C-alpha cells in the first residue's frame, strides 16, 4: 500500500510503498476515507529534533483519521467490516485512571501504552496511507448517520481540540461574555463554529490573513480582527474595556501569547493550544488578576462523541479541501505558505 512517511526529523515526509498492516488480537485495520493535514505535522517535519518528543521517526503521518473497518483482530466484537468509523487519536495504556476516563492523551502509565504520549501518526503509523492499524478497537467510534469519513476526519483533532478547550471554559462563557480565538486555521475556524453552537458568548476571531477572517465571519464570528497594533484596543472596545472572558491561542507564538495576555479579563481563561513555541512571562502584575493560563492537548473520547454529534446535526461543519495521497505534500506546502483555508483532508 502507499504511505506518506516521515523518515527523519527535519525532513519532508515521503510517499512510499509500505507493507499492508494485519491486526493483532484486539486491533483493527481500517481503510482510510480521510486523513486531516494538521499544522502539527509541519512542526514534526520542520521544528522538532531528536529528544523533543518521547518518540521518533520513521512513521506514517496522519493523526486525524476516519474510514471504514477493513479487518478485525481476534477478540474484537461490536464492529463490522465496512462500518464507517472515526479514530480517537491518542493511544494510552487503557487501564490507568485517565485512560478509563477516555483521556488517553494523559495516560499515566506510558510504559504500558503502545507509545508514550502519541498514537497513530504521532510515533506510530498514521492514516496518510491506504490502510491504518488501530492499536485497540476502543479507539474507534462509529460515525453517526450522515457523516462521511472525509468530513469526520478533521473532527478528531481540528474539531476535538478546540471543543475540549471551549468545554473546560464553559462556565465562563455565559451570555454577556466574550471569547477570542487567535488563529483561524484548521482548528480555529472549527473553534469559532463550536463557540457559536454551544455558547451565547460574543465571538471575536483574530488572524493575520484577511481570507481567514472572512472564513471566521462565515463561521459566525461576531467580529474578525487583523492581528496588528490595534487588536488589543479593538478587543477592549468590544468588551466595554474589560477584556475577553476566554482567549484561546491557536498559534502559540511570543506575539500571540502577548496579545492573549493583554486581551484576557480578570478571572478569565487564557488557553494555549498552538505549538509555535512562544512563551508568556507570568508575574504578579503581568496578567489581570486571577486570569488562569493553561495548555490543552487534544481531548477525550466522550468529547469526540459530542463533537461528532454536533457535526451530524449540522451545528458545526469544518471547511474541507480534499487532496489525493500523491498531493499530500502540496497540501502541507499550501498550509505552510498560508495558502490554505480551513482543513486539508487527504483522501487516498
Ligand atoms: P493552521 O495552519 O491551519 O492555522 C493557523 C492559523 O493561524 C492560520 O490561519 C494563520 O494565518 C494564523 N496565524 C499565524 N500566525 C498568526 C498570528 N501571529 N496572529 C494571528 N493568527 C496567526 O494550523 P492548525 O492545524 O489549526 O494548528 C494550529 C496550531 O495548533 C499548530 O501549532 C498545531 O501544531 C497546534 N495543535 C495543537 C493541538 C493541541 O492539542 N494542543 C492539536 C492540534 C494542533
Ligand atoms: Zn493535530
Uncertain parts: none
- Helix coverage percent of residues? 10-25%
H/E element sequence: EEEHEEEHEEEEHHEHEHEHEHEEHEHE
The unique ligands bound to this protein are: nicotinamide-adenine-dinucleotide, zinc ion
| Biggest beta-sheet profile | 7 strands, mixed
How many domain units? 2
The CATH homologous superfamily of the largest domain: Medium-chain alcohol dehydrogenases, catalytic domain
Q: Provide the residue-averaged pLDDT.
A: 98
The computed structural class is: alpha/beta
Tally of separate helices: 10
Number of strands: 18
- Per the CATH scheme, the topology name of the largest domain is Quinone Oxidoreductase, Chain A, domain 1
Question: What is the CATH architecture descriptor of the largest domain?
Answer: Alpha-Beta Complex
CATH class of the largest domain: Alpha Beta
Give the termini distance in whole angstroms: 10 Å
Strand content: 15-25%
Radius of gyration, taken over Cα atoms and rounded to an integer in Å: 20 Å
Outline type = globular
